[in-house]
Design brief:
The protein is of the alpha+beta class and about 220 residues long. The chain folds into three domains: about 70 residues, Orthogonal Bundle (Arc Repressor Mutant, subunit A), CATH 1.10.10.10; about 50 residues, Iron dependent repressor, metal binding and dimerisation domain (Diphtheria Toxin Repressor, domain 2), CATH 1.10.60; about 70 residues, SH3 type barrels. The chain is about 45% helix and about 15% strand. The protein is built from nine helices and eight strands. The strands form two sheets. A six-stranded antiparallel sheet has the order 3-8-4-5-6-7. It has a two-stranded antiparallel ribbon with strand order 1-2. A hairpin with a 7-residue loop joins strand 1 and strand 2. Helix 2 crosses helix 3. It is globular. The model has no long low-confidence stretch (mean pLDDT about 90).
Length: about 220
Amino acid sequence: MSQLAALSENVEEYLEAIHRLSEDPRGVSTTALARRLQVTPASVTGMLRRLRDLGLINYSRYRVIALTDEGKLRARQVLRRHRLAERLLTDVLKVPLDEAHAEACRLEHAVSPELEKRISDTLGAPEVCPHGHPVDVAGRDDTISLAEAPLNTALLVARLSDESPEVVRYLADLGILPGASAKIETRKAAAGTLVVRVGAATHTLGLALAQSVRVHPPRGGR
């Protein structure tokens, strides 16, 4: 436990990143982790070995990286603090949405359990962060990506998987934010684009970007 405490912030960053990447159907890789955390693949490999020794991940070279039960618990604790911090920043301090993620990344490591409870109570125990992610990470995810949603069907934007400032700013300018109603009018697989209607406006999105927008499917499934 003393070893874990000494690595606390770094460990939390990796656990959070692994948990986020585990939602990607391609799985978690050292390359994806290095890109997300902006470190070298060699640094990732070294930290993965440490996390494995701490009993937080299952990992062997060239195989899938997966959180253990303890690793999932700790990752979800970090994510909860992060998402509560984002709500505090946007709802109370009026920090722009595209800046909230980076600021919350700095705050999440300094929030004690007592402060976490105070933040939650003050905000009325919010269920989702400003990007639409659940504050308490548990249960089944019934959303689908905008890229695979059916045509000409009323959809409700649930969350933005990509929280990078430039993507959030771009989608916000288009009105594609959690809670917005949307409808896909056309999809051109060969061109890698789709046309989505949001309110009275239509926008052309690349399928890669649309993949990062999660929506609630229509009732009755796809």
